[in-house]
Write a structure and sequence with these properties.
With 261 residues, the protein is an alpha+beta fold. It has one domain. The protein has 5 helices and 13 strands. Strand 10 and strand 11 form a beta hairpin. Helix 1 packs across helix 3. Keywords: Signal.
Length: 261
Amino acid sequence: MKNAVRTSTLRACTCRNWFLTAIAVAGASIFPATAQAFDVVGVRPGMTEAEAMSALTAHRLGMRVQKRSMNYNFRDGVQQLNTESFLHEVLVTYDDAQGREDFRLYFSPLPSASRIVSVSRNVSLKAPPTQAQLGAQLIQKYGAPTVTGKSYADLNLTWGESGKPMCWRSNPKATVIGDGQGDITDYLRKEQAKGKVPNDFSQCGLAVAANLVGEPVRQLVVRITDYGAWATSQQKAKEWVEQQRQEAVKARLSKGDGPKL
């Protein structure tokens, strides 16, 4: 059961001057945000499809919606079989006089209940603000960033959930926030061997990554991923598929019958 994981990479840097400017623009005391504050226009990990669509309807009218389902396949030793299908991704697009805005919602696989594990927003800004202005808005919403970085003219900010392990990849050269759509358990097990990830994946916290494109900012991309829910639901899916495979093999062998001799 293999799934590719798309990631976005940013270069880490020292951004003290930018950060102080953004704090000044924010004009308030800044504290680390709690997981409850980690949402995108009201959409957050843990929501059902109906809850997310309600929030997006309240955000803006005129949405176009596309849904993508998926299933897992396995072999019983002779033929390929498929699991039950489940909702994997919802793509919501707005494109009118206000400009274009895209949302991608990724959901936990069966046998877990269908809940958002990651949400991303990509919006074009018709009246581009400066990085300091938009950065101040993001700091007001999410608190002081855990990591700041510059990639050419782009500014990148990353937040980790306070009090929980940062299971996402971060080092002096790069920060990577997964989008929740593939299997991350193999990567996390490697990090467990290094002592960087807890034995219980459910202890992993949420992560928020914001990419401010250009100066002034022409485009904003924000992604929120719940690493605990993502990893635990993928682990359950692996076990679920393996159980079905074993049952299918057992059923096939019980029906085996040789020719008349």
